[in-house]
Amino acid sequence: MLTDVRTFLKARHTFPGLRSVARLICTLLVAALVIAADTTPSVPTADAHRYLDDVKALTTPAMEGRGDGSKGLSRAAKLIEERYKSLGLQPAGKNGYFQPFSVITGAELKGKNSLVVHSESGKTALKLDQDFVPFSFSASGVVTGPLVFAGYGTTASEWGYDDYAGIEVKDKVVVVLRYEPPGFAAKSGNNGLTIHSQLVTKAINARNHGAKAVVLLNGKLGDGEEDLLTRFGSVSGPENVGICIVHVKNAVAEEWFKAAGKSLSKVQNEINESTKPASFDFPDTLRVALDVGVESTRATVNNILAYLPGKTDEYVILGAHYDHLGRGNFDSLAPSQIGQIHPGADDNASGTAGVLELARLFAPLKGQLQRGILFMNFAGEELGLLGSAEWVKEPTLPLDKAVAMMNMDMIGRIKDDKVYIGGIGTGSTFQTILHQAEEKSTFQYQNSPGGYSSSDHTSFVTKRIPVLFFFSGLHSDYHKPSDTWEKINADAAARLLDVISNVGFQLASAATKPEFVAVVENPNPHAGTPAGGGGYGPYFGSIPDFGQTENGVRFSDVKPGSPAAKAGFKAGDVLVQFGDKPIKNLYDFTDALRRSKVGDVVQVTVLRDGKPVTASVKLEQRR
């Protein structure tokens, strides 16, 4: 072509009328050469208005707070699916864009559910929901036995306090008080309640002492507080704590105390003033017959997955969870507003809208990038990272082709331009790539190397996939009905999406992929789900599989260099015994670990391929 142009340019001197035509051709030629030279694909900037519109759409009343198992979650899933279809992205689930899986969403009362009190004056049948109510995490079964009062149901060996000292509760029904002795606050060095106040802790402690059932009383009431029963299903706990536990009104129990020649309020005041136990047996003539039937409720929910093909079969993952709390239930941090829609604008409509906006920006680059991009929206995160755990267990694309996972959870409330990025130490190239992306923005970054925390990227770390976690920080509206779209900082979120798209583009285009690096963990600002006893007590170092495991806790991973790793434990092991404590679920493990001390050497037994493996573990201090 160039030879023909040169011939034409020479001819213009012989034929002057061709000069204007020559100029036009030269102009077109230069433009064509520029276009030909600039063939590198690029990603446009994020649109804050589109982004906010998606947050609004995900938080309308029709979405019902996107609770797992709700119609609102299904509507949100349909919205996401339709968006991927409109962008021409390939379905990457098992049923089109969907990957269905089953979750436990709560519990229902089934069967008789009765409580009959036998005393010298005869037999009294208590009324369900009026005099008593079971807890949703109660075991089911029929229990009969004498009553024994065990104070707050607490064994706090760290402070030399034990409500079970000096009494025998084996095969009896234990009566305990809500909360804990006020003196614990001073002993613990803070003004809040300790782990000993939690109902699950009380239930496990009673079970470990041989009790057959637990009766909880409200006891002393605050100013303006009524003696109300817990609404069934409103208090969190495991699927089955392994012992029957019910809530009984003070007025009913007051008659039991009178039969023992005591007063409920006076006994509680005695404990509170002295921070010493005041446990005792009720008269032998006082017995109860308890029949509890609790059945878990399940629902099928869906991860939503869409794929943008690249030139190879490797791919980068851009993900966020789209479920939230529905109408609150036990996860709500506004207990008085349980029953109201918790819209979850920041947690995590903000991250979901981010994935949708990035899908729109990347969609025109189909087949142009070195690697593909898998867009993922997880359900079941609020129930324990269940959606992401399901995908890594049953991946819809080859797991070994995943180059990196980038997770967005709560990116909509950026304040003072502060942004948190976790996991930067898990990929060998992350530092360099992030530095290049961060230089083009004005954010103040707080980066941490570790990849474990209470969000979906943790599931990928357990499979040795490098992760990056983008987070804008906690706030006072977290897990409350007040987490609404009006409080979203859309402009800042869009700027963060530009950083994320830059990083994603580099990962999808780089000649080499990042290698996974195991990192010694640091605390993460988005914490809260128990992870090997996270947050309390000494350090063990396992990462639990958050899917329900009956009769044990399965390790999805073991942190490098941790006490568990040093003892030889590894991913796939199922913990069944911790010292002298049998472990049936994650709550048992958390309770046992929190009762231990830094430096303790504990005999730990796991099942590996169905066979017991026992090793000594020296517990360490958390760092």
Describe the structure.
The protein is an alpha+beta fold. The protein has four domains: 2-37; 48-102 and 300-509, Zn peptidases (Aminopeptidase), CATH 3.40.630; 111-292, Glucose Oxidase, domain 1; 542-618, PDZ domain (Pdz3 Domain, Roll). Helices cover 27% and strands 24% of the residues. It contains 15 helices and 26 strands. Strands 1, 2, 14, 15, 16, 17, 18, 19 and 20 form a nine-stranded mixed β-sheet that branches. Strands 3, 4, 5, 6, 9, 10, 11, 12 and 13 form a nine-stranded mixed β-sheet that branches. Strands 21, 22, 23, 24, 25 and 26 form a six-stranded antiparallel β-sheet that branches. Strand 25 and strand 26 (611-618) form a beta hairpin. Helix 3 packs across helix 13. The chain is elongated, with a radius of gyration of 30 Å. It starts with a helix and ends in a 5-residue tail after the last strand. 47% of the residues are buried. Mean pLDDT is 87; it is low at 1-22, 24-38 and 522-536.
List keywords for this structure.
623 residues, Aminopeptidase, Glucose Oxidase, domain 1, nine-stranded mixed sheet, 26 strands, 27% helix
Q: Span from first to last CA?
A: 68 Å
Give a count of the beta strands, DSSP E runs of length 2 or more.
26
> How much β-strand is present in the residues?
15-25%
Q: What is the fourth-level CATH superfamily of the largest domain?
A: Zn peptidases
Q: Are there runs of 5+ residues with pLDDT below 50, and where?
A: 1-22, 24-38, 522-536
Query: What's the total helix number?
Result: 15
User: Can you give the helix content as a percent range?
Assistant: 25-40%
Indicate the mean pLDDT. Answer: 87
Query: What structural category arises from helix and sheet content?
Result: alpha+beta
Tell me, briefly, the overall form.
Answer: elongated
Rg for CA atoms: 30 Å
Largest sheet: 9 strands, mixed
CATH architecture tag of the largest domain:
3-Layer(aba) Sandwich
Return the CATH topology of the largest domain. Answer: Aminopeptidase
What is the CATH C-level name of the largest domain? Alpha Beta
